[in-house]
């Protein structure tokens, strides 16, 4: 069964998406908050890596088509083919490190996790997922000046 986790940043009365929503397919419908965070962070990193790679490849293609120098074209032609440079790979992130950061962030109340509108309090807390469970990670940002 699939569940979508939304991540938001609350700035005063405004609610802005923080990270793209991710879809989880947990092996069990009973999860601890820590397990939910682990699954979510791993999926967020995977989604961001794909998005970054696609964006970078698209930008690289446009820039290379526009600015490939005449000298580079002639050099490549003399070698048999003119090709566009390949975009570099997405940055390598250590998923384990990022998961630990997220777990510590939850414990420090840097963000909150809501399940069906109920704020979860501890990493050991157990939740039961079932359609239509709603899951949200909320980052609270204090207002300037108070």
Task: Tell me about this structure.
The chain is of the alpha+beta class and 146 residues long. The protein has one domain. 39% of the residues lie in helices and 27% in strands. It is built from 3 helices and 7 strands, in the order βββαααββββ. The strands form 2 sheets. The protein has a 5-stranded mixed beta sheet with strand order 2-1-7-4-5, with helices on one face. A two-stranded antiparallel sheet has the order 3-6. Helix 1 packs across helix 3. The model has no long low-confidence stretch (mean pLDDT 83).
How does the helix and strand content classify structurally? alpha+beta
Number of helical segments with 4 or more residues: 3
The helicity comes to 25-40%
Count of discrete domains: 1
Q: Give the spatial strand order of the biggest sheet.
A: 2-1-7-4-5
The amount of beta strand, in percent, is 25-35%
Q: Number of DSSP strands?
A: 7
Largest sheet: 5 strands, mixed
The topology string of helices and strands comes to EEEHHHEEEE
* Rg over alpha carbons: 21 Å
Could you list the spans in which at least 5 consecutive residues all have pLDDT below 50? none
How far is it from the N-terminal to the C-terminal residue, by CA?
Answer: 42 Å
Shape, per Cα inertia axes: elongated
Average pLDDT rating: 83
Give short descriptive properties of this protein.
alpha+beta, elongated, single chain, 5-stranded mixed beta sheet, 146 residues, two-stranded antiparallel sheet, 27% strand, 7 strands
